[in-house]
Amino acid sequence: MRTDNAWKRRDLNPASASVRDIDGSAQTAYSGAETSVRDRMARIFEEARKLGWILLKALLRFAFMFINNCVAIPSYCLYLLLLQPLRLMDARAFWHIEGVMFKWMLAMVSSWGWIAGYTVMEWGDDVKPISEEEAMVIVNHQATGDVCTLMMCLQDKGTVVRKMMWLMDHVFKYTNFGLVSLIHGDFFIRQGKAFRDKQLIFLKEHLEQLYLSRDRKWVVLFPEGGFLRKRRDTSQAFARKHDLPHLRHVTLPRLGATQVILQTLGPQQENGALSAGDAGQSVRKAPGLQWVVDITIAYPNARPMDIQTWIFGYRPPSVTHVHYRIYPIKDVPVETELLTDWLYQRFVEKEDLLAHFYETGAFPPPKGQKHAVSKEMTLDPVWLCVIQSLAFASGYMWYSVLQYFYCCFF
């Protein structure tokens, strides 16, 4: 009986109860810490697994594109070398064939982004009806991915891709695709005040020699003259100094190349504006420029996409939005001051379009309409597979031919 009471008194001892409580709390805390460590380790392993998959996918994509370039670009060059007699006999037929192959080359580049889930949503005017007419295309410039985006979204615009001439920075000439662009007749412009005047003279000569002789239709240029992130501060300082609009999403365009293109390819009227023209009134054998196509590219969350993203595909699938606006050439002035104002106004409009897009996720509707209409630009996967298969088959064929001749002579 005494023993039982002793145990009861011991159980009622506050110090003894505290010890048990502390032991229980310690065990609970240890269990909670152990669970927390397991959760943290699980998250680390999951993140490592995702990172490993991204790296593996990037390496596989790079390997495929490297091989793709190694077979497609030499095949393009060798086919055109083989067709040089046709160029002497019928230059128009030669450049038609070259244009078709050039479009296929650009389709391969487009497929890199398409496979990674980088698609295009189109807004604004429909440019398909004017795809067979001559036009100058002005585009805002944010990153190297802008060119890839244009290569993709113009694939379904008739003969535009195979009949277009690009104006690009001279550095592009030294890339893997530079040789193809050089053969196609694109113009590589060198930036900087020291080269500006000479480059404009070279551009005029280039247009006179190659634009008509190769049956080109569209001329694509980036009037800002550089990437947004590189030119924004300089552009804003220039705007403050000359009381011009403050732009955040684009920069003030440069006039030189735009004016040279308009003066060289578009017939002038007496009032200094460009007319639609015809073969009877113009000294040129073609009607000349008929339109200016203003293209605005917008990326989700204002995060431009560069060529590295297209190659490695490490960014999650996303939709790039492209807005078109068409202006008749007769409404475009060519006199320096008037053209400067007109071109500035186009980029002020781009600023408004992009500001609205980044705020709402959509471009604003055209004047007089309540809703903006968009459509997804799609590529035919079967067609892309056929082109890729032709590229690899051509690469194997040319390798076999060159190996045969090498064995014959050596």
Characteristics:
eight-stranded mixed sheet, 12 helices, 8 strands, 56% helix, globular
What is the strand content? 5-15%
Q: Poorly predicted ranges (pLDDT <50, ≥5 residues)?
A: 5-12, 268-272, 276-284
Could you report the average pLDDT, rounded to the nearest whole number?
Answer: 85
Number of strands: 8
Radius of gyration: 31 Å
Order of neighbouring strands in the sheet with most strands: 4-3-5-2-6-7-1-8
Query: Count of helical segments?
Result: 12
**Main sheet characteristics:** 8 strands, mixed
Shape: globular
Helix content: 55-70%
SSE-based structural type: alpha/beta
Order of helices and strands: HHHHEEHEHEHEHHEHEHEH
Distance, first to last CA: 114 Å
Q: How would you describe the overall organization of this protein?
A:
This protein is of the alpha/beta class and 410 residues long. Helix content is 56%, strand content 12%. It is built from 12 helices and 8 strands. The chain has helices spanning 2-11, 14-82, 84-89, 91-115, 145-153, 178-184, 193-211, 228-241, 256-265, 307-312, 336-360, 381-409, and strands at 118-124, 135-139, 164-169, 187-189, 218-221, 291-298, 318-328, 374-377. An 8-stranded mixed beta sheet has the order 4-3-5-2-6-7-1-8, with helices on both faces. α7 packs parallel to α9 (256-265).
